[in-house]
Amino acid sequence: MTEKLTYINRELSWLDFNQRVLHEVLDTAKDPISRLQFSAIFSNNLDEFFMVRVGGLVDQLHSGYNKRDIANLTPSEQLCLIRKKVLELTALQADITNSIIEGDLRRYGIVIAKMSDLTPAQLNYISRYFEEHIYPVLTPMAIDFNRPFPLVLNKSLNILFKFEGEAEKYATLQVPSVLARLIAVQEKTFVTLEDVILYFSNSFFEGMQIAAKGFYRPTRNADLALNEEVAEDLLSVIEESLQKRKRGEVVRIEVDCDMPIELINYLKAAFDCDNQMVYFSKALLDLTVLFDLAQYRDADDVYRIKAQPIDWSSDNLFDAIKECDYLLHHPFNSFDSVIQLIDQASKDPDVLAIKQVLYRVSGDSPIVKALSRAALSGKQVTVVLELMARFDEANNILWAKELEKNGCHVIFGLAGMKTHAKITLIVRREGDSIKRYVHVSSGNYNDKTAKLYSDIGMLTCDEQIATDASKFFNMLSGYTQQSELVDLVAAPDYLKSELIRMIEREIGWAERAMPAQIVLKCNALVDKDVIDALYQASQAGVKITLIIRGICCLVAGVAGQSENIKVISVVDDFLEHSRIFLFRNNGEDEVFISSADCMPRNLIRRVELMTPVNQPDLKAEIIDVLNIYINATKKARYMTPYGNYVSALSDVAEQSAQKQLVDYYHIELP
User: Fold this and answer.
1) How far apart are CA 367 and CA 364, in angstroms?
2) Among 257, 405, 509, 556, which one has the highest count of C-beta atoms within 10 angstroms of its own C-beta?
3) Is 420 assigned a catalytic role?
4) Helices H, strands E: what count in the chain?
5) Which stretch of DSSP H or E encloses residue 399?
6) Out of 23, 329, 330, 420, which one is annotated catalytic?
7) What 3-state DSSP class applies to 254?
8) Structural domain boundaries of the chain?
């Protein structure tokens, strides 16, 4: 008899999510470029997984930490299972990707050729291109008795050479990241930069005979561990730590499948790695290069939808928001509405102050420009900027300096925890009184990702929410202790307990045979206390639907444990990122949007917000959206009692939830 599964390891659950991403590469209904984009996303996801999650497990091993997780696995056991799963997935990725490149992509009119495939004319062109544009940038680095193995940067693509001779001589050469990896030899026919360099490699080793050569790519531990409480200058400490990330301990070496064993052994010694850290690839190393093909995607692709603008009741947005709250469901509703609000606030002479939390912003952010303009015009502008937004630290440091230069008060949040809440407060003088306007969201103030991520936000001037927002910002900027707010619910002090309280309330309704239902939509469900509360609710008869894009440590559909719980994961063209919580509450539906996932890091180690949606039409809209996700089977995978995911049997003509939302919001395709 199979033992009942109670919890799923979070790392293996994440790999299951990335497997669902990989399955999008198999979708022949997509054009080949769109399919290859998902292969690139899979690779990019896996890079971050090794840098952070695998890196953390390696740190645990080195420190002697051997505690079992909620799935009863030690760090060592997790690393073994991770390797097994990654080998399986990357082999599948290579087979599918190579097949698309050699087949469907060529039929689509795009060729990624080998140097040996080029015509004499094309080869002559590439020879000149190499001499003029590539050779001057290259820096081959000899390795011998006097010159040790150099620092090789994280995620850099490199070529290792061994030379003929009695004395062992090697050299390594980084493929320059400043140059395009796909080089056009004619319209829509490309060769890769690394292939060109390898082809002409004899030109920078004159007098040497190359005995062996091969591509390799190291991944380093990039999880930053900082003591913020003793850091006098947090900004400079993070800048220094970003440099350490480039030379962190190697946790993975990717090599091409043809690399000679002597070179692999040399790399293992150079990076102090064992066989378990070496991963062979039959595909190009670093398949994120496939992102470069996006410009050739079909014009009618869903990524290019014409987002619906908000139908404001007045040209003055503040007058419009005074009349009613507005729901913004991106990318179906245009993020331009948020930019428009901040821009109007920056120019409005009656606006006295703007306060905003920024976690991830774009490289050319119109939000930051508007905030700077507001400060330069004399308004009080306070920006809570999270410097520790992983892999966006460098970008945020630049914005922090720019905002301070322009007169904004820049705060780096609370020591020891990230500020992940998404909120803006605008204070405006209206006659003899002060009116406050609030924007809250599940997503970042990033105009680029708002076109690719599915997020939900709300604009309101509700007096209680505005009062709570003022208290929230005072807590972040001053010495005010986090007090219990009335409508807004904040982590780390109250959000987790409030979620569990509402789950327990549904249990009470179910036990009295009253309407009881829970729908949670978020990116991840990891927190054991929340999971256990959901198990208790299921056993009490509460009907529960969990729309979890990624990690889910809860096991659905287990008799006597979770038979009333359904777990759905949606992976489609837009990244599912919204956090929405619905509690039936005996027919008095309560709906919330939040910045938080149900993970310990969000609920107890971050500053997060959960906001009620009280306006009846907006509440009804959100329930409509949830029902679309619950009922649409295409692009949805369902968890089985064994913890794996299966696709639903459905009518092939059915549209996915995201496509149905395009129709729901009356969006026209270009």
Assistant:
1) 9
2) 556
3) yes
4) 19, 27
5) helix 393-405
6) 420
7) strand
8) 1-223+250-298, 304-486, 490-664
